[in-house]
Amino acid sequence: MNTRNLQYDILQQIVETENKIYFLTGKIQKSVIRNPSSFNTEVFDSISVGVPGQLLVNRPDIMAAEGQLAAAKLDVMAARANFMPNVTLSANLGLQAFNPVALFRPVSILYSVFGDLMAPLINKNAIEAQYRSSGSKQMQAVYNYEQTILKAYLEVMNQLSGIDNYTQSLETKAREVDILIQSVVISGNLFNSARADYMEVLLTQREALESKMELVEVKKKQLSSEINIYKALGGGWN
């Protein structure tokens, strides 16, 4: 009975998910076409080689933050050069992708964020004075830009790490499922030869079923991470 209830719960989730797809696509179909047999082997575009950090600029929140910089009459390209991680992103890179001066002492490099990027070095004190008196709006725009980039970067790192970890977990869980399926066959043979009672067969079958369901959950998490990395980069990558 518990298994049957789980089936009804899954059917309800399918209905709700399909309705979300209809809403997003604006199309009404009898059902969403899918191939259940290929679920565990389904793969998306490979991003194992990494994606450039500059792709973060495709995100709507970073675009909005850059719009605030421009509205505050600050140099957007200079801000990108100072704050944006100019690296190939990977799950193990972490915050070392950032210029530590920009990350922990952003005020020390903000002279170049002002429009007069080509000012002679002798005017450094004048530029600093301009920054100090520029008002809270410009300062807030710069710090908001920095925080937006950090948030976006960490979201990408989390999803890259998720893809890596869930892929490895999927391989381990798949091996476990194979072993338990073999155990079901063995326990059945032992029962048929009167060397095991039926309770052992049922327990083995339940363990195999639970392991299969866990495998599906791990695969869902892996696919979700691959979808979320697309979203975290503001619409994918080239």
What does this structure look like?
- The structure is a single chain.
- The protein is mainly α.
- The chain has a domain of 105 residues.
- Helices cover 63% and strands 2% of the residues.
- The chain has a two-stranded antiparallel sheet.
- Helix 2 runs antiparallel to helix 6 and helix 6 runs antiparallel to helix 7.
- The longest helix is centred in the last third of the chain and has 57 residues.
- It is elongated.
- About 7% of the residues have low confidence.
Keywords for this structure?
238 residues, mainly alpha, two-stranded antiparallel sheet, 2 strands, elongated
Low-pLDDT residue intervals, each spanning 5 or more residues = 100-104, 111-122
Report, as a whole number of angstroms, the end-to-end distance.
Answer: 49 Å
3D shape? elongated
Q: Write down how many β-strands occur, each being a DSSP E stretch of 2 or more residues.
A: 2
Structure classification: mainly alpha
Mean pLDDT figure: 76
Number of helices: 7
Helix content: 55-70%
Order of helices and strands: HEHHEHHHH
Please list the strands of the largest sheet in the order they lie side by side.
1-2
What percentage of the residues does DSSP assign to strands (E)?
under 5%
Radius of gyration based on Cα positions: 27 Å
Biggest sheet overview: 2 strands, antiparallel
